[in-house]
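Summary for the steering committee. One of the milestones for this cycle was to obtain a three-dimensional model of the protein with magnesium ion bound, which we needed before selecting residues for the alanine scan. The sequence and ligand used are listed below.
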Amino acid sequence: MGNKQPSQPQDGPDSAQAEVLSTAADGRLEIKTDDLGPEEQKIFRKFADKIKNETHGQSAAEMLQTLHEEVGQHVDEEQWMGEAYVRIGIVGVSGAGKSTFINSLRELMAKDAGGAAVGNTETTSDTAEYRHPKNEHVILVDFPGALFKVEGGRWKSVAFNLKEYTKKFGKKMRECNVFLVFTSDRVHDNAVWIAAKAREMGKKVLFVRSKFDQDVTNKQRDDEAYFAGPEGQAEGEERLLQFEREDYVTKLETMGFGRVAPGDVFIISGILDNIQRGQWGAPALKDAILKQLNIQQKMLFITTCQDFSPTMARAKARIYKSRAWKVALGVASGGAIPYGGTAVNAGIMAATIILFKKGFGLDENSVTKLATLTGKNVVELQHIVDERLSLANKITRFFQGDIDWQSLKEALTAVAGGGIFATAIAVDATLDMVVPFVGGLVTAPLSFGLAWRALCLVIEQQEQSALALYERAFS
Ligand SMILES: Nc1nc2c(ncn2[C@@H]2O[C@H](COP(=O)(O)OP(=O)(O)OP(=O)(O)O)[C@@H](O)[C@H]2O)c(=O)[nH]1
Ligand SMILES: [Mg+2]
């Protein structure tokens, strides 16, 4: 391989190639169309055309440079962030807990500055947009649940008319990626009509019933035996949750919304403590939101999902892994590629590992927060994290110049077996044909294939570490 050049212009991409833009023969590395954001897909296609038409005489290193220029041109941070937004539409009956949920997602309490007013019956006649403090491009859009007019200097609600509502809010509804419909003890007509409209627009609608913590407390008071099964409290809560979900599905059907899949109904508690713990249906709700987003939006949204739930840890691992090719490209080309909205210049690999560690809630701040939340010993929790991150630590130290390549190689072999190098070279060799820019880089300390594989291993360790951490913290 080395500086091998593509010998023949390859045929135009057939449909299979369009699906999988780059793949290794052993099936271990795939960059699927789904792994690329819309802009990235364009870049890859353009690049593939370019190397087909223009660059037969170029060396791999020159081609790498070409790709780098292409990528550098298109994903500078401004442009990248300029195009990727996540908008979550929220609508529902007054008092259902929308503001509380919005604040908790933004890690705010009602009393914090910038928080949405809670328990405030003041009528709003327009949408309110709440940006996530961790990522300005994640926006929660609170839609009014009714129509209002000014009468005698005051807002007065008027008979609900969907046509009028759509005229007023249709454009903003269309901008949303997904809709959350909140109800409390009764399924309110207006919200359901608005939801039906959103569905007509092709939007996914998820139904949320909040305040489950209250339902549990009430049930405990009214019917103690309900929670006395062999599995105790957890079993009773699960039974109550299933009951409420079925009840909700039936209500929606009665109201003419049609049969909603129980999987689209989420029973949650919106108060901050419960959201951070990942209690009841909240993690599944976030997971369902993720499903409606493209990969770049997923990266944005996942940075705002700072809860301690296995569901989110698994979702993060999935998403981070599907972005690993991009980091590997940055490592292999020695370049700087803005990544998930964060410009990573020096030591892209080390920086990414830190970014992901934080994402999983494994950094010192998050572990301390978890210890406080659960009343566990912070040193003990920190130990659970540290003992599972051997590879990440080695790689970080390698990039800091604390250990040499031989030590890192040993660490990689210890985790993945000696086969990792053969696989990495095989990946590079295959890529050499499919995407020729990596040729010539296998001799670099961390070639594309190896960087990609190593990062996936680190993500796996971080995921395991997070799962072990949460289990201990909540046991
Ligand atoms: N226990 C409990 N109380 C909640 C929960 N969510 C909201 N509340 C309370 O319910 C009341 C109404 O909550 P809000 O978040 O203001 O409801 P909203 O849907 O924003 O209401 P409007 O802004 O009037 O449309 C407040 O007193 C909240 O503290 C919850 O999950 N659990
Ligand atoms: Mg509100």
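Key point for the committee: Residues 1-30, 72-80, 335-346, 430-445 have pLDDT under 50 and may be disordered.
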